[in-house]
Amino acid sequence: MTSKEKKTKEPVEETEKAEDQNQEETVEEPKDVPLEVVLTPLEALQEEVKKKDQELAEQKEDFLREKADLENFRKRLIKDKEDSIQFANQRLLKELVQINDNLDRALEAPKASLESLREGVEMIQKQFTAFLKNQKVEAIEAMGKPFDPNLHEVMTQLESEEHDENIVIQEYSKGYTLNGRILHSAKVVISKKPAVKEEDTEQPEETKEADKAE
Description:
This protein is α+β, with helices and mostly antiparallel strands.
C-alpha cells in the first residue's frame, strides 16, 4: 500500500468513527415508565375505606373545633347576662343616690326652721317626680274615678250620698304604671249606696182601737 493510499484511508476511518460516536450520543435511552398497579377488589375497597376514615377524622376535628368555639360563646353570653343583671340598675341607683344626698343635706341643715325644711322636702319631691317621669313611671289618677280592678285595690267601702256607687272617694296610696304596665295598684276606698231604712209597718194604737170598735 502506497503512502498516498494510507493518507486517504486514515481520514475515512476517522470520519466513520466520528459518525458512530455522534449516533451513540443522539440515541436517547428509554425512560422508566411507571407500571400501572392493578389492585384487587379487596385492596381497592381497603383504599376507599382508608380515604373515608381520613375524611371522617378531618370532619371530626372540625366538629370539635366548632363545638369548642360554641361553648366559649355560650360561656361569654352567660357572663354578659350576669354582668347585665348585676349592673342593670346602675344608672337608676346613681340618680337615687343623688336624691338621697339632697335629703340628707336637708335634714342636716343647722337650725333649719319648719318652713325651710318643708321647702327642702318639696324640692326633693320635685326631683323625685322628675326621676320617675324619666323612668317612664306615671301616677294613676284614682280620685273621683270609677273603680277599675285593673288599676285599683279596694281597702274598704263607705256609704256616700254624694257619689254614685263604686267611685273612688279616698286614696290610701298612689298607684303607678311603668310603660303602660301596672307597677303598683292604687289602694283606694270606694263608695256605696246608703242602706235603705225600713219603714214602720205597724199601725198606731188609736187606729187599732177604732178598727176593733167597728
